Amino acid sequence: MNTAPADSGRPVRLGLRENWPQFTLLIVVNVCVGALVGLERTTVPLIGTDVFGLTSDLAVFSFIIAFGVTKALTNLAVGPLTTRFRRKHILVTGWLIGIPVPFALAWAPSWGWIVAANVLLGVNQGLTWSMTVNMKIDLVGPARRGLATGLNEAAGYVAVGGTALLTGYLATAYGLRPAPELIGVVFVAAGLALSLIVRDTAAHVALELAQHSGPAPTGESNGLAHIFARTSWRDRSLRGASQAGLVNNLNDGLTWGVFPLLFTDHGLGLAAVGLIKGLYPLLWGVGQIPTGHLADRIGRKPLIVYGMLTQAGGFVLALALLDRPLLAGVLSAVALGIGTAMVYPALIASVSDHAHPAWRVGALGTYRFWRDVGYAAGALVAGILADTLGLNATVIAAAVLTAGSGLLAAHWITERPRP
Questions:
Q1: Major facilitator superfamily (MFS) profile domain location, by residue (predicted)?
Q2: Are 314 and 78 in contact (CB under 8 A)?
Q3: Domain 7-205+220-412 sits in which CATH superfamily?
């Protein structure tokens, strides 16, 4: 039986059923994490253009770039931080850093304050989201990683989509600021309070280490530089997962900026664009519950490869049906949402499969670094290509890049036997 004594005197067991109270608590925490970043999906680009008078697409997208770069670097720092601090302490610190964000978004006197708020938001998201997913993986053990990550990411991205819809309604009723942003105060307060209740998972990591069949790496092999190199390019499977994660979030960053412009240019109003933008993360979120479970049953690779190809098909649909823009937008959002739901939990589970428990947090931090660099890359690519080649060419480039990423994943990623 997978049990061991804990410092508190309670027996420690690995498994979802055995740890469901803590697992559920962490699910609710990640709802708050996703809801905080969901504040930005609807109102912040409009604040840039309507409140601060920005005319450059690249300038408007600068808040996405600031968020993506900061979150990526924070993800990378999480591995070394967990060697010095407990996961719970890192989780609580992330919430403390996030406290100023909703106030800055609500009352920023200049666009620079919005960008600065996104630096804080990136650190908040890097620490809190990293810890919720790592702690869930710690609790369930290797047999249910796909389901654990699916539930975690589903909670977060359903909250992203739901909050995006809510802030759109509030902005229509009360204006762009401050009402839509101030609901973030509730999310920060709830997330911080619940994180103080969560128990740390160090004992679960120790139990999995004791049961792991392979020898524990020591010395240089546990260092950040070694883990970064191994996850980024030396290990074929980890390399395949990292590049797929980067392209996946590049798609999100790109559509964040391009789709509103593309579909309004073809006659859709803000309500229809809001539907398209809300549908994508909602399907992405809800879909990860069955796809995470499926990843435990049929393996990670099929979901990763076909998920990337499904996303590429979503971009094709966006252009092929532009004479009926609402249909094009909805079908594209459905394909992108389903494709992303297939990929997201399977990628995290695949990285966990190929990383020893002793350096798994570092491997996940490196993977999440490359994945969230995709936000910044997507915003940057969208701004440059849209200005030089036009919106249609930008969407075509995204389709080609995403299909190519899926083919690379098929070539590089291998399945690891699981219990």
A1: 237-419
A2: no
A3: MFS general substrate transporter like domains (1.20.1250.20)
